[in-house]
Write a structure and sequence with these properties.
It is built from 3 helices and no strands. By secondary structure, it is mainly α. It has one domain.
Length: 117
């Protein structure tokens, strides 16, 4: 079918126009591929921006926690029992944070087969 349409196009418009039409079609294919790649890259950038924003929120929360902890220690400096209770609370939160980091940290990918270790 393509040969008939090429022949008919060539008959009506000539070889030069047929080649121009083919190049035009090739350019359109390339532009479509570039557009599709751009959409994919845009989505990846959006995902990365969301991840960075989430990290910022986590970091800000940790800073708030540390600032609050510092203030509580200063307030309890003269009360050893309350200071010990705060120490136990901080240890529990530290353990929970460490567990969350381990649970949400992806494992390193295995090296490619045959790669030096």
């Amino acid at each position: 079918m393509a040969r008939v349409s090429d022949w008919l196009f060539g008959l009506l418009f000539g070889e030069q126009e047929r080649r121009a039409a083919q190049r035009h079609a090739e350019i359109i294919k390339v532009l479509n591929a570039i557009t599709k790649q751009g959409v994919t890259m845009t989505q990846e950038v959006d995902d990365l921006q969301a991840a960075v924003a989430a990290e910022g929120t986590v970091i800000d929360s940790a800073i708030t926690l540390l600032n609050g902890l510092s203030a509580r220690i200063a307030d309890l400096a003269e009360d050893p029992v309350a200071l010990k209770a705060l120490s136990v609370e901080v240890k529990a939160k530290s353990d929970a944070l460490a567990a969350a980091v381990v649970a949400n940290t992806p494992a390193e990918p295995a090296p490619p087969e045959g790669a030096p270790v």
